[in-house]
Amino acid sequence: MPINTLAPFLLTVIAGAMVAAQPAFNGQLSGHLGSPLRAALVSFTAGALIMLAAVSVLAYRAGWPSLERISNTPPHLFVIGGALGAVFVTTASWAAPKIGTGSFFALLFAAQLIAAMAIDHFGLFGIEERSVTLLRVLGAGFLSVGAWLVVNH
C-alpha cells in the first residue's frame, strides 16, 4: 500500500477506535452532569479549546486565512459541521449507555453507509457522483444484517 494511502488508512483506523470510546466517556459525563446536552457542551468546549490551541500553533507557521477568503465562505459552512457533530455527540451520550456501545455503533455505521451511498449516488453537498452498484447495495445489506445481529443477539 502506497504511503499516500497508508497514512490516511491508519489514521482513520486510529480515529475510529478513539470514536468508539467517545460515547462511553460522554455517557459517564452525562450521568455525572445529569444531561446528555450538558455532556455534549462540555465535550465540544474541550474540543474547541484543544482545536484552538492546535490551529494557533499551525497558524503561527502558516498564517491565518485572509478576510477575503473567510468572507467568500458560504455562511452555513461555519455552522453545519458543528451542528451535525452536536447531534451525534448528544445522541451518543444518551443512547450508548442505554443500548450499549456495540449496538449504537452497529446502527450508526449501517445508517452512515446508506446515507453516504445516497450522497455519493446523487452527488449531494458538492460530492462527486458515484453510482450505486449491485455490489455496493449488497455490501450495505450485509452491514445492515450485521448491525441487526449485533443489536439483537
SS strand fraction:
under 5%
CA gyration radius, whole angstroms:
19 Å
Helix fraction, binned, reads: over 70%
Structural class: mainly alpha
Task: Specify the overall morphology.
Answer: globular
The count of strands amounts to 0
**Overall pLDDT level:** 91
Total helical elements: 6
Largest sheet: none
Instruction: Give the low-confidence spans.
Output: none
Following the backbone from N to C, one meets helices and strands in this order, namely HHHHHH
Cα distance, first to last residue? 36 Å
Structural notes for this entry:
The protein is mainly α and 153 residues long. Helix content is 81%, strand content 0%. The chain has six helices and no strands. It is globular.
Based on the model shown, name its key terms:
single chain; 153 residues; mainly alpha; 6 helices; 81% helix; 0% strand
Question: Secondary structure elements and their pairing?
Answer:
Layout: H1 3-33, H2 36-62, H3 67-71, H4 80-99, H5 101-122, H6 134-152
In short:
By secondary structure, the chain is mostly helical. 81% of the residues lie in helices and 0% in strands. Helix 4 packs antiparallel against helix 5 (101-122).
